[in-house]
Amino acid sequence: MSECRSTLGDGSVLTVSAVRRPRGGRAEVKCRSPGGPALAERMQQVARLARLTEARHDSRDQVLLTMDRAPGPAERGWELAVVLADRMARGVMPDAPLHANGWSDHWQLGRIDGHTGKPAGAHPAMLLGGPDHLAYLGALAGQPDAGAAVASARAWFPLHSGGINDTLSWVEVSVYPLAEPAGEEEDSIAAPGLDLTRQLAVRQALAGARRFDARGEGRWRSAVRFAEPRFQGNSFELALVIADRMARGREFLARGRVIATGCSSAWQSGRVDTVEGCAPKCALVLAQAAAGDRVLLPRAWESALPAGFAAALRATGASMACIDRIGMP
C-alpha cells in the first residue's frame, strides 16, 4: 500500500492510500471517500486525467484509492496527493513518504495550477504545486513538460430537450502519443465524469472510428471531457469522433467551431447515421452559430432541413455540410 498525505486548510492532515490489485474486469481506478460519491467521482477523475501524460500504459491492474477523512467542499489541495499515491502504487515513481498540496484544472496536461495555501503548522517538507513550486508532474523525475506533447480539440453538439437549457455543448478530446503500442484500444481511453454506460459508448465510438483509419489504433492515450457530462441520447457521437480526428491531425480545423450531430452503429466503416430532432436542433444551431463555424449534419437530414436553413447559416458566416461518412471533404 502507498500513502500520500496532505494538510487541509484547518491544519488537519488527510491521508490518501492507494492499493494495486488485479483488475479482474473492473474499472482501472476505484475511489472511496467519507465525503460521499461526488468526492469519490472527483478523485477518480483527477487520477484518470493525470495518467494521460505517462509514457507507458498498462490497464491490467486496478488501483483502489481511499481517503481517511473528507476535505471541505471548496478544498482541492488534496488532488496532488491522489495523483502521487496512484503513481507510487503503480510503480510509476518510487514509493516514499510524501506530503503534498496542489490542484489543477489541467491534469490531462500533467500541469499543476496551484495549491490551497500552506496553513500554520503545516508539514515543513510539504510538496506544493503551482507555477512557483512544482509546475508539472514530470519535474518529479527530471523529465520535460509532457503537456507540450498533448494535442486537444473540441467540437460542439446541440443539447436539445425542449426547454430553456437547450444549448450547444462541447466535447474535448486530448491525445498523448504512446512510446509503444497499447493493448486494447478502449482501455487507453479515459472519460472521467461520465457514468459507466456513457463511458462505454465513448470508448466504443472512438475505438471504432480509429479502426477506420489505416493506422489509428494503439498509438494514443486519450482523455475525453464534456462541458455537461449528464445528458441523454447518442447524437454527441459525431462531435466526439470529429474532435478526436482533429486532435490526432486527421481532420482540418475550422476558423471557428465545429458543430456536429450524428451517431453510427458502424464507426469502423466510417459511416454516419441519422439522429432524431432535425428541426429543433437546426433551429438551435442557427440561433447560436457564428462566423467561421463549420456545421456537420447527417446526410439523411438533407431533404428535411428547414426552409432557408442553409442560406441563413451562410449569412452568419458559417458553413455547412451533410455527410454520410467521416474522412471525406
Give a structural overview.
The protein has 329 residues and is α/β, with parallel strands linked by helices. The protein folds into two domains: 2-147, Ribosomal Protein S5, domain 2 (2-Layer Sandwich), CATH 3.30.230.10; 150-323, Ribosomal Protein S5, domain 2, CATH 3.30.230. It contains six helices and 13 strands. The chain has helices spanning 37-50, 79-89, 196-212, 237-247, 278-288, 309-315; strands at 2-7, 13-22, 29-32, 61-67, 98-101, 127-128, 151-159, 167-177, 189-190, 220-226, 258-260, 294-298, 319-323. The strands form three sheets. The chain has a six-stranded mixed sheet with strand order 3-4-2-1-5-6. Strand 7 (151-159) and strand 8 form a beta hairpin. Helix 1 crosses helix 2. The N and C termini lie far apart (53 Å).
- Number of E-type strands: 13
- Arithmetic mean pLDDT: 87
CATH architecture of the largest domain: 2-Layer Sandwich
User: Secondary-structure element sequence?
Assistant: EEEHEHEEEEEHEHEHEHE
Overall SS class: alpha/beta
> Fraction of residues in helices?
10-25%
Q: Which ranges are low-confidence, i.e. pLDDT below 50, for 5 or more consecutive residues? A: none
Main beta-sheet strand count, sense and barrel state? 6 strands, mixed
β-strand amount:
15-25%
Number of helices: 6
